[in-house]
Amino acid sequence: MPPTVTENQTDDVITDEPTIEYRSKTSSGHRLSPPTGASAKGGCEEFIGILQEFSKLFGAFNIADFIPHLGRIDPQGIQARLVKARQSLDKFIDNVIDDHMEKKKRKEEEKAAKNGEDDQEDTDMVDDLLAFYSEEAGLSKESDDLQNSIKLNKDNIKAIIMDVMFGGTEAVASAIEWVMAELMRSPEDLKHVQKELKDVVGLDRRVEEDDFDKLTFLRCTIKETLRLHPPIPLLLHETAEDSEISGYFIPKKTRVMINVWAIGRDPAAWDDPDTFRPSRFLREKAPDFKGSNFEFIPFGSGRRSCPGMQLGLYAVDYAVANLLHCFTWELPDGMKPADMDTNDVFGLTAPRATRLVAVPSPRLLRAVY
Ligand code: HEM
What we know:
40% of the residues lie in helices and 9% in strands. Helix 2 packs across helix 5. It has helices spanning 41-59, 78-113, 125-130, 146-149, 154-168, 170-185, 187-201, 216-228, 260-263, 309-326, and strands spanning 24-25, 31-32, 138-139, 150-151, 234-238, 243-245, 248-250, 255-259, 327-330, 359-362. By secondary structure, it is mostly helical. A two-stranded antiparallel ribbon has the order 1-2. A two-stranded antiparallel sheet has the order 3-4. The protein folds into 2 domains: 1-119 and 160-167; 168-369, CATH 1.10.630.10. It contains 10 helices and 10 strands. It is globular and about 60 Å long. Residues 163-164, 167-168, 171-172, 175, 231-232, 235, 298-300, 304-308, 311-312, 316 line the site of protoporphyrin IX containing FE. Protoporphyrin IX containing FE (HEM) binds at residues 163-164, 167-168, 171-172, 175, 231-232, 235, 298-300, 304-308, 311-312, 316.
């Protein structure tokens, strides 16, 4: 019997509030953990609040984008809110770095007191970055050793944390939620993915990184989800030089918006474009998302495309594969797949307008949990 959903039984329910609580082991063997360094609830809540404010502001209609001289007046107060959000983020990341630096200093003192003996403790991404910390950033040419040749100052570390915070959280969470939602709406495809997981992995263990390449249908499912629901639906670029395209003169500094969402549903490029059909990616020469098939660019294309694509895909693969392998999923309260809301909300990313609620029950042998 699957657990039923009630207001105070949230442990049995998957919702996908943005979370930075994922920890995983990358192929290089490094652990990735929250850049807040604080799995403490307060830190997470503050971080989520800041991200949500940025998300709202990035998706807001800003009249100054269309009538630039209104930018100075800021009639909607968007600029003022952006400045405030940026200050909160700066302060938040400064605190994270300071906490980690303090911890590092304490550890070094403890190590010295124990005559160089080190306690093997879990480190996170900020600790790993601090291993390269030096007030004078730059690349030393004398040394070939990575640890000694790369130096990062506090601003460099802060910039990297911001990239990971923005890129590595909402886009990934949105993709995971949409894969789960589309599969709940398409029970045949859900069955297909789960059968593949059972055949490749077996019911006596969890999914591991080495399994990913054999999970062809799961990969197609993730691609099909990114086609229909690109987490970043609108890309904003600016021309660097005057140029001419198809006889049109495009002056330098023209803003160019690329509608990835519409491109992924273009009937000229896709058969039956609004239908979720992962098997379309099984055919030979199906487009890939590396940026050279312009009908499918969930990670952008060219020099400004997503630098975190591999990490993002790894996080989505890992989360979705384990959610689907470890649990059988049902919609709550006898809800029918066709009744599910499939609208998205535009912001920094495009998550589902209505949070996904689904009910899991264990699928693997008991000893695995
Ligand atoms: C499913 C996950 C992800 C998707 C779909 C995604 C998608 C994108 C897209 C569409 C862009 C804009 C490209 C353009 O403007 O042409 C972008 C930029 C970026 N992404 Fe990702 N991303 C994901 C995960 C990540 C992760 C995990 C990180 C970092 C850890 C990351 C870091 C960045 C950064 C720093 C940029 C800005 C690059 C620049 O401006 O040059 N992304 N991403």
